[in-house]
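Replying to the earlier thread about multi-chain prediction with a worked example.

Input:
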Amino acid sequence: MTANEAEIIVNEQVPMVEIIREFDAPAEKVFRAHVDPKLFVQWNWPDGFAVTFDQWDCRTGGAYRITMAGEDIEGTVHGSFHDVIPSRLLVQTFTADAAPDVVILEKHRFEDLGDGRTRLTATSLVESFEYRDSFLDAGLVEGFARLDQLLADMPDDSGDQR
Amino acid sequence: MAAADPLSHVFSALADPTRRDMVARLTLADATVNELAAPYDVSVQAVSKHLRVLEDAGLVSRSKDAQRRPVHLKAEAFDLMTNWIERYRRQAEERYQRLDALLADLPDEIEGDEK
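Result:
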């Protein structure tokens, strides 16, 4: 629980976001925590989210559909598993039912670092910079409201954040 | 700025590659419209139009004095973007800390298919 800080790269050339994070666990386990719905549900959503796996067929050519309900957000998302290679690679699409035109391509690479450590590289590629930015925004429902507030009466010297 | 949704403004302003490039150059130093137009194969008018979009989004300002009227990048607009990305990063970090906790107690054996 030391130097494992998530790093984010917001790509300037293509509408992509990349998150890199290391774990004190072997690739097999990190991978399993992504593909086993009983494990996935335990960490991917904040507390207080009601999550239902309407479908979860995590294998190459499979698909998923998940309904979730939280404080400010609820809806159903779905996608296809394009490639599932145990302990190495997970490629899937992501679409919210509410916006079927917007397809996000997600790729998780699991890299065995030895000594029971794993580096995860998670990339999300979208169709345009505008989509990318609204997609970033979508994860920030509560933060965004506060940011709007902050912007409305933003002082010239904005030293303190966090 | 004072728009209903300032961040969307900022991001749609930056969705254009020419405008992103102009902003990137302004991070180095203030510049006049002519200086900004120089590297591009477009008219000064077209560059002025891009500048207006950036101005409306609150990303740049132009001093009123003299004819030079250099364009200046507004740092606070950029801080805001950085904060916004940082927030997203922190949210991912929180998610992965929950994963850390789960992995710490995860038994070795796998049920079902293994490779």
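DSSP finds five helices and two strands in chain B.

Feel free to reuse this layout for your own posts.
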